[in-house]
Amino acid sequence: MTIKRLFDIPHYALEKLPKTDMFVTKYNGEWKKTSTQQFVSEGNKISRGLLKLGIKPGDKIALITTNSRTEWAIMDLGLSQIGVVSVPVYPNISPEDYEFIFNNAEIKYCFVSDKDLLKKVVKVKNNIPSLQGIFTFDNITGAANWREVLDLGEDDSTQIEVEDLSNSIHAEDLATIIYTSGTTGRPKGVMLTHHNIVSNVLGSVPRIPKKKSLDYKDTRVLSFLPICHIFERMLFYLFQYNGFSIYFAESIDKMGENVKEVKPHYMSVVPRLVEKVYDKIYNTGASSGGLKSKIFFWALDLLSKKKEISKPSGIQQLIADKLVFSKWREGLGGEIITLVSGSAALSTRLNLLFQNAGIPILEGYGLTETSPVISVNSFEKMKIGTVGLPLDNLSVKIQEDGEITVKGPSVFKGYFKNEQMTKEAFTDDGYFRTGDIGNIDSDGFLQITDRKKEMFKTSGGKYIAPQTIENLAKASKFIEQIMVVGDGEKMPCALIQPDFEFAKTWAMRNNLSIGSTPQEIASSQELKDRIEKEIHKTNEHLGNWEQIKKIELTPEIWTVESGLLTPTLKLKRKAVKEKFIDLYTKMYGHHE
């Protein structure tokens, strides 16, 4: 069968690659499996149930879940095969943004995972005229449960209606609207068709390596990134297409134990997670003391000297691999074929370290507007420090100002109800403007150098690309988050959120009392002096005009909840600056 629409994928999986554990979610401490057959029949029930509720093709239904789970997958299938447009929403945005999205998309029904999300939606429900009802996945007293829709669709005599609707859906029809939080302004609704996402899935399939010895029936994926995010969602379809089992992780905090239980072969990650995994490995190695620590640092030093990816060779490397790096692999379940990294730039240093420790990472690049993958590395063709070769079905063109632009089947239809913004997003010859700056090297690999809109000029007229500098600085154990500032100012400075836990350990080792709360630690002069040394090291790799001249430490942790990071953990630059405007003024208030 040919796959043209999203719901063709589960039907293809049922016909060609059926299994008993297509999706697995943990409920009350127990992993519960859903087979391919069960998945398709529950999806059909949802379709029939929604038709009974009077839902028609083109209607919009919101899906919001704190952690990805099987119910989301069933809903997604049930909606897409009757032409309903799914609007997945990030769980941790503000009630005001919920209200804006629901009204903008004219949401008819909303399905939420749990009590907290229910409260959020109920808060704004009266301001959303189109909203007819809210269903929950968890059993919550007094709330309508999603099983009521399944029960409505129990009678399969109307299945013919579902099939008629399915047959009338075209590849070019709208499948989903994804609102991107954006680092500025109101969320914008990105309209993606079935063809957009399907072409991206099929275009990405050749890039994902498979183990010859592994049957699809035994292949496991651990999924923990938000499924409302197009990166995880596209992979969710790609894994179904390959017949892999998808285990939904309980939460980022439970990742460690879930990895050990599932022993996944594939996992998608964001750079922040790779950094956290490495920090954990490093801290464990550094604090084990005595001979163990000595061996750890010796092995790490050996690994850091490798500038290319290669298998361990020579007696020293083989010993290091056996004693140290095999433990890293075990920490990730011991069976990882590859981690797929997207959403932001991964530091070249970490990428090399993991690759050479036997944990391959495939770094890629894309945007919600491109469904999302534009380019990705593969085992056959990989170059560290790049985001891989563009997909074969896309054309990538670098504009005169260095902006990466792209044309092809996975490029979105436009922004929902916003023709002006849609028009501005394309060049005259129909290429989508990514807003990123980059280049294509002589071997055809795409390299991203910065976000166009994040670049700024100092008052001396020099351009600064903050992300590049921030990635260099984040190699330091002391620095958890950093934001380089200085738009229109005389020189670049930086707001830094120290790694408070690491700072405490450092202070203990050096018999310093720097306090225990973020406020106390951030105001420690000793810590500031020490971090200035780290920044000095970073500055050695930078041109004179880009060097960070002053820093201030922020007295709190930057989180999604506090509005300082986007749901994919990117900096909300405007919000960070506003939040710490006093520290900003302190750095610039006194310069001559």
TrEMBL record:
SUPFAM superfamilies associated with the record: Acetyl-CoA synthetase-like
Pfam families in UniProt: AMP-binding, AMP-binding_C_3
UniProt xrefs under PROSITE patterns: AMP_BINDING (PS00455)
Keyword Nucleotide-binding in annotation: yes
Sorted UniProt keywords: ATP-binding, Ligase, Nucleotide-binding
EC number assigned by the record: 6.2.1.3
Ligase found in the keyword field: yes
Residues in AMP-dependent synthetase/ligase domain copies: 25-416
GO molecular-function terms, A-Z: long-chain fatty acid-CoA ligase activity
Gene3D superfamilies: N-terminal domain of ligase-like
InterPro entries: AMP-binding (IPR020459), AMP-binding_CS (IPR020845), AMP-dep_synth/lig_dom (IPR000873), ANL_N_sf (IPR042099)
Top-level taxon of the source organism: Bacteria
PANTHER family xref list: AMP-BINDING DOMAIN-CONTAINING PROTEIN-RELATED, LONG-CHAIN-FATTY-ACID--COA LIGASE
Protein's UniProt name: Long-chain acyl-CoA synthetase
Organism of origin: Chryseobacterium camelliae
